[in-house]
Amino acid sequence: MPKGGPASHIYFSQRLRLHYVDWGNNDAPPMIMIHGGRDHCRNWDWVAEELRKDYHIIAPDLRGHGDSQWMIGGSYSQVDYVYDIAQLLDQKKMTPVTIIGHSLGGSIALTYSGLYPENITKLVAIEGMGPPPAMIKDRLAMSTHERLRGWVDELRTLSGRTPRRYQSLEEALHRMQTENPHLTADQARHLTTHGSNQNEDGTYSWKFDNYVRSFSPVGLPFEQTYELYGRIQCPTLLVRGTESWATDPSTDGRADHFKHVSVANVAGAGHWVHHDQLDEFLKLIRDFLKD
Q1: Fewer CB under 10 Å: which end of the chain, C or N?
Q2: What phi and psi, each to the nearest 5 degrees, are found at residue 91?
Q3: How confident is residue 131, by pLDDT bands cut at 50, 70 and 90?
Q4: Where do the H-state alpha helices sit in 141-213?
Q5: What is the C-alpha radius of gyration for the chain, rounded to an integer number of angstroms?
């Protein structure tokens, strides 16, 4: 576990009480790290520990995740996540900024960078481009009523889903290791400790809201998302694990939408590249940031 961890802070966005951590070094260039779905800000600790001497790093808990407030209702839309990041960076006066995002956080980072290209120095997205093109094609083949009814059914199911209670932290840790077998024992324990709460009866539950499992059926069409990619002006690094479900953006056509892009496929890594191959990821990042 990294030593000398960050300080916790609170900010407000759309009346929600949201949490972020700050690694200090306020006079250094700003950097924000955005976690993925059902994750939390402390998943960046190993990366932040290595970069904190060169950057002023903050890492938020997205709404419904970690120590941030759960929203009222069940629609966690990407545009609201993007607003929260815009609000945090505006309140902290931390632009221009370097962004590193993973999965959902990578998607948020890409969207924000397309909206505010003048605010971004460099951008790293780890598997943050959403479903592969083949999956997008299947989704587009669905009729509007099929997509919306599917969402209604999913939310109704989630409304009856109570947070799972693990009898011990060790049991929750085992679940974490099952989700990502690449994790070391120390990584799994750190992520489990910071990603769970102990309930009053002594059991443990994950911090995230079960409603974050559902994706809004309405949002930016894919062609408009690609248009935003084309507005990004800064150097962009797209990172993918070769053992992940994600496809290579340099061969599936998605990298073509960027002006200044490079793609890195990391061997021996799944979806969580920054955990699965930390040393290789750090080397990639340092090489990318020093240019």
Answers
A1: C
A2: -65, -40
A3: confident
A4: 144-159, 169-179, 185-195
A5: 18
11: number of Cβ within 10 Å: 18
d(CA 224, CA 282): 32
Q: How far is CA 129 from CA 86, 198, 220, 283, in A?
A: 19, 34, 13, 22
Report which residue type is found at 276. Answer: D
What size, in residues, is the chain? 291
**Looking at the predicted structure, is the pLDDT value of residue 1 above 80?**
no
To which H or E segment does residue 266 belong? strand 261-266
Choose which CATH entry (3.40.630.30, 2.40.30.60, 3.40.50.1820, 3.30.70.20) describes domain 7-147+210-290: 3.40.50.1820
Domain map of the chain by residue range? Answer: 7-147+210-290
Query: Half-sphere exposure (CA, 13 Å, Cβ side) for 261?
Result: 18
Mean pLDDT (the chain, rounded): 95
Per-residue pLDDT tens digits for 177-189: 999 999 999 999 9
The dihedral region occupied by 270, where left means phi > 0, alpha psi between -120 and 50, and beta the remainder, is beta
Q: What is the pTM of this model?
A: 0.96
In the structure encoding, which two tokens stand for residue 203, read together?
């059991």
Taking alpha carbons only, the member of 289, 275, 7 closest to residue 127 is: 275
pLDDT tens column, 42-51: 999 999 999 9
